[in-house]
Design goal:
Shape: globular
Structural class: alpha/beta
Helix content: 25-40%
Order of helices and strands: HEEEHEEHHEEHEEEEEHEHEHEHEE
Radius of gyration: 20 Å
Strand order of the largest sheet: 8-7-5-3-2-1-16-17
């Protein structure tokens, strides 16, 4: 009996040692920036991990699927996020965020200068206050320094006045690491993207585009896509969704600029990595 207990003790010690070293290895700085477009069905959720392991979550999808998606994309021991950003307060972008705040420690929260009118938005704001996490109101020109040589720049957001439209207020943000960049568009509509193609056209070029509004026909005009001219175009979309996303005309436009189209409905979570010089899987 004693030899058996001894081997159990040794096995537990070895297991603990292995877990400690795995944890140390996972927390070590890397040369890679990782951007995971999480599979949350018909909605948006994007996890950014910088080389120094700082983490940003953009949007939280339509429901509790976000927790499982984050569990698959993050180390098992990790229960913190440095920044959570809400692109705009529509349900398919924020419904999962109250659960994220309940499960994770959040360093800061950023949202556009427009308030939601739903119960879920109010629940999210309550969680932000309970954290408590600084509530940053994004403005055009806002820059968040995430790591050495890693920046998240707000290119667009709009309060919209009394007739505010949540999609028009979507934060359009550009993540830059060295020579590489990722453009996140929320649900920005054609009117906003066409406008941006003129004064900010030179700032739109990106290696990776998160295609706006799940590939809706009311977004992603040709003039905008030609300015971005991405190598990869990621469409976060649910299988057999009732909206018919992505629209075939949008797919055709992306094909015309020779972007490699990646869809979460086909591939699940899509993870892209950058070393500051090139982007790949």
């Amino acid at each position: 009996m004693w030899p058996r207990i001894r081997w159990i003790i040794i096995s537990v010690f070895v297991l603990v040692t292995v877990l400690v070293w795995v944890t140390v290895w996972l927390e070590m700085p890397s040369k890679f920036l990782t951007v995971a477009f999480l599979d949350v069905g018909q909605g948006d959720a994007i996890l950014i991990t910088t080389p120094n392991k700082n983490q940003v979550l953009i949007d939280g999808g339509p429901d509790k699927k976000i927790l499982r998606a984050l569990g698959s994309a993050m180390p098992f021991f990790d229960h913190s996020l440095d920044l959570v950003m809400e692109s705009h307060p529509d349900a398919d972008h924020i419904n999962g965020l109250p659960d994220v705040f309940q499960r994770f420690s959040v360093g800061a929260f950023m949202e556009p200068p427009i308030s939601g009118k739903t119960n879920i938005y109010q629940a999210l704001k309550t969680e932000v206050k309970n954290e408590p996490a600084p509530d940053i109101i994004a403005q055009k020109g806002t820059r968040i320094v995430l790591d050495n040589n890693v920046y998240l720049d707000v290119l667009w957001t709009n309060a919209g006045g009394k007739k505010a439209d949540t999609n028009e207020a979507s934060i359009v943000a550009k993540l830059t690491y060295g020579q590489n960049s990722f453009l996140f568009t929320g649900d920005s509509p054609e009117s906003v993207e066409s406008y941006m193609a003129y004064p900010a056209g030179d700032k739109l070029k990106a290696d990776v585009l998160k295609v706006s509004h799940h590939g809706s026909k009311n977004s992603n005009p040709e003039i905008f896509l030609k300015k971005v001219k991405p190598e990869f175009a990621v469409i976060s979309v649910g299988a057999k969704n009732k909206y018919g996303h992505p629209n075939q005309e949008v797919v055709d436009r992306l094909n015309s600029i020779k972007a490699q189209i990646l869809m979460t409905k086909d591939l699940g979570t899509i993870t892209l990595k950058s070393d500051g010089e090139s982007v790949g899987f």
